[in-house]
Write a structure and sequence with these properties.
With 235 residues, the chain is α+β, with helices and mostly antiparallel strands. It has eight helices and 13 strands.
Length: 235
């Protein structure tokens, strides 16, 4: 049996987390019921413990293949690596609490625990609740600029998110300084160049956002600030 464990050493983690063993053993509610894909099974539980919320991803036989792992390796390991890389680039994500992969009886088993993002709202819910209208265009554009700056920081590090839907972008606009966090880095990977990472993610954002011309321009202003290139030249 082969095993590999990863825990988070980030100083951004709250200091009073329950023991990992307690989180792993606590009951939870499915937010993503187990589904079959990539030749295996993957699901996500929400766990409430000591007044804190965690998300526990559980996988069996859920693997990706690459030149390094032609026979397959758990996607949890790739996602944990991406979360660490994002943190090193100054990109906010859910804090990685624990990740562990093991091979038993010829099949990969994996678990990953992340801490919930307190005070954040997905852009999907932001628009569903028509907050873009109630906040006004100026504040809305500031949020989009902040999103652009954060995504550009990820791409500058040659990391491609790879799955940019509005439900994967979370914002906290309760203070004058807007915070943006990126979720679901399961498909994230590092490209050979920053431009390749940028091109892939920017095309996804433009195709899936549904923004007006002014809203897209606001996002591009933020992106250009961090990346240093005109967005249209990267598409």
């Amino acid at each position: 049996m082969s095993e590999c464990s990863m825990t988070n050493n980030s100083t951004n983690m709250r200091p009073s987390l329950p023991p990992v063993e307690d989180i792993l053993g606590a009951p939870g509610k499915w937010v993503e019921p187990p589904n079959i894909r990539r030749g295996g099974e993957s699901g996500v539980l929400r766990v409430e413990l000591e007044g804190l919320t965690f998300y526990k991803k559980q996988q069996v036989g859920h693997v990706y293949r690459s030149l390094l792992h032609p026979l397959g390796y758990p996607t949890v390991a790739r996602e944990a690596k991406a979360l660490r890389a994002a943190a090193s680039l100054g990109v906010s994500t859910p804090s990685l609490v624990y990740a562990h992969v093991r091979k038993q009886d010829g099949e990969w088993h994996a678990v990953m625990v992340t801490a919930a993002l307190d005070g954040y709202l997905s852009l999907e819910d932001f628009y569903a609740n028509q907050l873009d209208q109630s906040l006004g265009s100026r504040r809305h554009h500031e949020i989009l600029e902040a999103y652009g700056r954060v995504l550009a920081r990820l791409n500058v590090g040659r990391w491609q998110h790879g799955c940019l839907y509005l439900k994967h972008v979370f914002v906290d606009f309760s203070e004058p300084s807007i915070k943006v966090a990126l979720l679901d880095l399961e498909k994230a990977r590092q490209r050979l160049t920053a431009k390749r990472a940028a091109r892939h993610d920017l095309r996804q954002v433009k195709r899936r956002s549904g923004w007006s011309g002014d809203e897209w321009d606001a996002f591009c202003r933020g992106y250009r600030y961090s990346f240093g290139h005109n967005v249209e030249r990267l598409l």
